[in-house]
Amino acid sequence: MTRPAITLVGAGLVGALLATLLAQRGFAVEVFERRPDPRRVGYAGGRSINLALAERGLHGLRLAGLTDAVMQLAVMMRGRMVHAPDGRSELLRYGRDDSEVIWSISRGRLNIALIDAAEAAGARVHFDQRLESATFGDAVTLRFHDESDGSQREHRAESVIGADGAGSALRAAMNAASALGERIEPLGHGYKELEIPPLQAFPADALPPALAAPRAHGERFAIEPNALHIWPRGSYMCIALPNAEGSFTVTLFLANEGDPSFATIDTPARARAFFAREFADALPLIPELEADFAANPVGVLSTLYLDRWHLDGRAVLVGDAAHAIVPFHGQGMNCGFEDAVELADLLAGRPAERAAVFAEFARRRKPNADAIAAMALENYVEMRDRVDDADFLLMRALDRALAERVPTHWMPRYAMVTFTRMPYAFAFERGRLQGELLREFTAGRTQLDAIDLDAAAATVRERLPALPA
Ligand code: FAD
Ligand code: E0Q
User: Whose CA is nearest to atom 9 of ligand 2?
Assistant: First the structure.
């Protein structure tokens, strides 16, 4: 029997994982990727950019047999290290203990590991191939522009999977053939990446006083390595995630318009003045602030909603191409990896029934993509504005106390999203119900001691069904 063939556009994080899973399930997989082979030329200019990997993403990597290779490159993050304007910082743990943590991983190294796995499983990856247009007749005709020599090539396929990211060219072609009901909601805020170098890179005379001691002990990291650092400042914030080499990638999230915004903080000198005022403790950690600010673009953040993700059995979208979200829950890749697992399993079950499989894939995944899109938007306000406010901290304390007391009936929403594979739509709805109870239990209170935890636990058992085992 000949192997069923499938074509993918995009060998980014989701495309490369999906190619691996499909090749492992017996498909003849061809992947076309716009960028050059990262193993040959290095990844995207050599900047280190990292991502938070959580349980959903880890599950996809486990199925691909990649956990060991990837976890060797990962840095554990136990919680959020919140840096107040006065320079004080506090670690807010994400989970109960070190079994509930997330992992910072280099985007470039992860992508290379995934491409290696796809090829090892038998997928063929064609680099420097930018999808330019697609037409949908009895078969799909894809036209590629070769970015290395400017030549054109055509590829015909029975069906194609678009894993070509938020700006998907396949989506545009599908939408032109038959409207997908596309809606793009800009966040109105953008981001800029900066770097905290490893400790050894600081010249001894430029070492911030707080850093002098740890360097003497051979430490590589300028600040706590096992945390996701956040500097919440109301309407904007910085975060920093650790890299295995000892550096951190800092991301400033800020409005595009108004004051302050990327429109007013528009020169390296203004960026320095802004950091001196708003992120005083972070500034000495970013020696190349001006150069980073000038070299790195302002990234755009939007949420993408589609009414349809597929064109009968001929084309389907996955990952950011189908549902780009804002990054404030650290779940875009994790969600895309869930897509890959779901689609690979459905296709393996019914390899010849593409239209039915694509429809079922969208039916199962769309409610979950909508739920994480909403939760990611909510988390921006929570991160930048609430992680240091008293009401929030009381609700958080009660949330955790109830999870300890009635674990069969209560789990913080963050934990459901991050440490389990419960459907996002379930976590969203359950979080709403728990949120109502949290507001009820904390109304008029300022201290956890003032809340009768036994009574609250009894109410929880009475009003909420047990969580799935
Ligand atoms: P991409 O990773 O964008 O890959 C698309 C691929 O398609 C690329 O290789 C691209 O070159 C290729 N391509 C594009 N156009 C064409 C074309 N015309 N022809 C051929 N190939 C093409 N997610 C997390 O889970 N955790 C995080 O901590 C996290 N942090 C983030 C921080 C920021 C600032 C941002 C912006 C996103 C973050 N995300 C995070 C989200 C995550 O980056 C995305 O969800 C993830 O990269 C989506 O993977 P993808 O494969 O669908 O798309
Ligand atoms: C995580 C891990 C870009 C980014 C990635 C993240 C998170 C945040 C804030 C951001 C959410 C959180 N978070 O700490 O609640 O858990 O990935 Cl801004």
Answer: 328
